[in-house]
Amino acid sequence: xxxxVVWSITAPVALRxxxxxxxxxxxxxxxxxxxxxxxxxPTDLKPYGLDPPxxxxxxxxxxxxQPKTLYLGIGSGTGSSIYxxxxxxxxxxxxxxxxxxxxxxxxxxLRDKAILSVEREKxxxxxxxxxxxxxxxxxxxxDWALTAPTPLRADTSLVDGLATAxxxxxx
Length: 171
Description:
The chain is an alpha+beta fold. It has helices spanning 19-30, 98-103, 107-110, 156-168, and strands at residues 2-3, 6-9, 15-16, 36-39, 55-59, 68-75, 81-86, 89-96, 125-130, 133-140, 143-148, 152-153. Strand 7 and strand 8 form a beta hairpin.
């Protein structure tokens, strides 16, 4: 689910979601186009891999009262399309096969992989211990200063790079 700009995983466990992966999924849903309608009123969904479906994607859209469901089946045999249908219409259609990869994500793929949860702009101090040696930096306005072991002016771009590396590190 999305709350403002933050994505969350709600099941099977509650976790912070990856904003990038959440947006990628939303864009895949929004950009999903059928390439051909195969059967307007199918009597059997098994030949299409839709009974049961290979994959089910449930989503809600802003302004929509009810969630919608996308069912993805097997490949059509051409290597470029897969069978699909939606909860709001019985027809079976073909969609580009790359959509399978867009939706076929596990919890590890979708969760936030950030090691630290801190905004880059809020980092105002860095303390690094390398064995017995310790280096400490403090931000003063837009500049950085070395505060330990000896107070000195620091290379701002180098310490900015370290702060960026810390705030963007991920698994």
